[in-house]
Design a protein that fits this description.
This protein has helices at 5-21, 31-37, 54-67, 86-93, 128-142, and strands at 26-27, 44-50, 76-81, 105-110, 113-118. It is an alpha/beta fold. Strands 1-3-2-4-5 form a 5-stranded mixed beta sheet, sandwiched between helices. A hairpin with a 2-residue loop joins β4 (105-110) and β5.
Length: 144
């Protein structure tokens, strides 16, 4: 019995996807979905660039989960998965200029414009609590 590589990867990353979708974060898996949602979202939008790396598991996704318990949160919650949904991730990254591609990373947008961005290097050396504090500070500033 053999399993295809693609099936193996889907099975392996599904729990990593679920960590965000269980919080109400909507996956954008195709470039057209990104193009439909990000520039047209009114109000505030959180976009998590998910990843299989350890800092995504240990700091990024838990930090996002803690931040979303805050009283004030973005109107829209989206995620793309780097290395898995490559075209959707590339399309989302077009909205994150001037920042270079980074995964994991977290973007906060307001009315389709980037207002706050957390790069990988700001994730890998910080705790989930520090990331949540960074996000909730941005929520307080931009989600009013």
């Amino acid at each position: 019995m053999s399993m295809s590589f693609d099936q193996y990867m889907r099975d392996m990353v599904q729990p990593m996807r679920d960590e965000l979708t269980v919080l109400g974060v909507q996956e954008l898996r195709l470039p057209d979905e990104v193009e439909e949602k990000l520039p047209n979202a009114k109000g505030t939008t959180l976009v998590v660039v998910n990843s299989v790396c350890g800092c995504a598991a240990g700091q990024c996704r838990p930090g996002v989960a803690k931040a979303l318990q805050h009283d004030l949160t973005p109107d829209h919650l989206f995620t793309v998965f780097a290395g898995q949904d490559k075209e959707a991730t590339a399309k989302a990254r077009e909205y994150f200029a001037p920042y270079p591609p980074s995964s994991p990373s977290i973007a906060l947008m307001k009315d389709g414009e980037l207002v706050h961005f957390i790069e990988r290097h700001q994730i890998e050396d910080r705790s989930a609590e520090e990331i949540a504090a960074d996000l909730t500070s941005a929520f307080d500033r931009f989600c009013r």
